[in-house]
Amino acid sequence: MGKTIHFISGLPRSGSTLLSAILGQNPRFHAGMSGPMGGAFNTLLGELSGRNEYSMFITDEQRRRMLMGLFDNYYGPEYGAEVVFDTNRAWCSKMHQLKDLFPKGKVIACVRHVSWIIDSIEQLVRKNAFQPSSIFNYQPGGTVYSRAEGLANGDGLVGYSYNALKEAFYGEDTANLMLLRYETLVNDPARALAAVYAFIGEPAYQHDYANVSYQAEEFDQRAGTPGLHTVHRQVTPRERKSVLPPDVFRRFENDMFWLDPALNPRNVVVV
Fold first, then answer.
1. pLDDT tens digits for 101-117?
2. What InterPro entries does the entry give (predicted)?
3. Contact at 8 Å (CB) between 154 and 93?
4. Helix, strand, or coil here: 20?
5. Smallest Cα–Cα separation from 34: which of 57, 48, 14, 58?
6. How far apart are CA 81 and CA 77, in angstroms?
7. Looking at the 3D structure of the chain, how many domains does it have?
């Protein structure tokens, strides 16, 4: 490809859209909310597997070229940026493939206190009380307890991405992985972005953290979750009380493995 490809992944509601909005201020960069490439990558990988009756005619090198072609064709001439950041929670589960396809590509995994992730989603559900959300397959029933359980299970929005994050964090392909804490991004965006630029090996850029802009209103409306990708104009922490029952909040309060150096055997960069 003529472009440099990096990846944004990690946990939902942890700053990936905010990070993309900030990076997008750099005219050399393209970054946005989660897109279709992760799903397309998985689908093509499956279609090129043994379930295809003609798979005996497909070599690994052909698979590799076809997967590379996805990025080459999707990020075509209409994307004038030299550096592309593709966002998808699936990328943390594809570290080995990404390392092979993009040896210089970096994966920035956004992370956040898991209890506050659950809280953030619950707050959105309550704010849009008359619009069932795609997060829960547009089902209007349930309680805060069933929603938290659904989010946290292995196939849930949070549980899947959390397990993928751990797979990346404890896997063998961590040299190109960095974890960026939501708390760092909103409290000290300049330090967070300086770390990102150093990690990807790009020259520093003067970002405007008081004038951040990003719009995905049509997508959010269709998903039944207006505000899902809302980015506040000024990057600043916003303190508030949790809407979760105390027992639900406590359930996830010890899940931040990335904060304990003893649980970081491969010395993954955590900012």
1. 999 999 999 999 999 99
2. P-loop_NTPase
3. no
4. helix
5. 14
6. 9
7. 1
Which of 37-76 are b and which e, b meaning 16 or more Cβ less than 10 Å from the residue's Cβ? Answer: bbeebeeeeeebeeeeeeeeeeeeeebeeebeebbeeebe
- Cα 94 from chain centroid (whole Å): 13
Query: Of 72, 5, 23, nearest to 185 (Cα)?
Result: 23
Task: Say what the pLDDT of residue 98 is.
Answer: 96
CA distance 173 to 93: 11
CA 32 to the chain's CA centroid: 10
Q: By residue range, what is the domain housing residue 182?
A: 4-270
**Domain CATH number, residue 31:** 3.40.50.300
State pTM to two decimals. Answer: 0.94
Residue 85's CB: how many other CB atoms inside 10 A? 24
On the CB side of 107, CA atoms within 13 Å amount to 30
* CA 186/CA 190 separation, integer angstroms: 9
Please provide the size of the chain in residues.
Answer: 271
